[in-house]
Request: fold
Amino acid sequence: MRKLLSGLVIAAVLAVVFISGCIQSPGNGNNQTGNITNPEIKTFQAIDGLIETVSGKPIIRMFSTTWCPHCQWIKDTYDRVAKEYADAGKIVAYHWELDTGDNTLTPQVETEAPASEQAVFAKFNPRNSIPTFVFGGKYYRIGNGYEREQDLEKEEKEFRAVIEELIKEAGPQ
Reply:
């Protein structure tokens, strides 16, 4: 009986960890809004500071897992937009699947996200919820903005608005 009870307690704890690690609404309770003046950016938050770049190109990131249904819902839209801008040489983009360690935007199969990327995830999302989006080290969102509405077009429009804002803020390349 004691083993059964212990097993149920462990199962309950794991269920809570699983549920809290995969969310669908934006925000992390931090409520840092920074200075967002673009009216098309509605579900992202911002912090003050310099735009994170590589060779003058803003860096955007999505952190997800293979098992999160909210991550699966948004990943194709994010990947398509990220690849379009990256292929045009306007940004550097990553999509880290944290359970496999793979950056899904590369043909290589990585087995672990670099410590520097894990540090970015931890900085913007100390609760380790997914999906998490960090654009330019300035704009971030935990969860999806429009999943409840089932509106991937609004997601894409906002991704593009944030990316265009980053490109503008980063200046000439």
Summary: The chain has a mean pLDDT of 86. The first helix runs from residue 2 to 21. Strands lie at 45-46, 53-54, 57-64, 92-97, 102-103, 132-135, 139-142.
